Amino acid sequence: MPEPDDGARHSNLADRLNRLFAVVIPAGRTRPYSNPEVARAVSAEGDVQISPQYLWALRNGSRDNPTLKQIEALAAFFGVPPAYFLSDEKAADIDEQLMLLAAARDADVREIMRRSTTLSRPDRQAILRIMQSLTGDAAKGPETPEH
């Protein structure tokens, strides 16, 4: 698989970092981490120093070449493997999980999930078809695994 050009890779780094800031919310809070909070926490580990300004530069794409140690430290802070920042394939897998995590914060989504556990498989598939028709995904068919 060919490597993306530098512009695409750098854009992905900023996008991926911003996605982590948006989705990984500290326990007990509704607002995301700030650049100073992340910089402090990463730097407190001792091996890597990251300033809030450098973090902001990575997030807005004006800086785009962090060291491997910085990538590893940021990945550890956000609870993702370093490959999230380095591999499009790994990032796609993790982005799907992040999307589910973000959706699970919504009270309506949690209620739908809770209620669906009491339904039979045919009833869940019927609900899924209704949801797909509402979102314009009717042609895709059920995406539920066989159980």
TrEMBL record:
| SUPFAM superfamilies, A to Z | lambda repressor-like DNA-binding domains
| Secretion signal span | none
Which PROSITE patterns does UniProt cross-reference here? HTH_CROC1
Molecular function terms from GO: DNA binding
In what residue span(s) does the HTH cro/C1-type domain sit? 50-85
Q: Which residues form a coiled coil?
A: none
Q: What is this protein called?
A: HTH cro/C1-type domain-containing protein
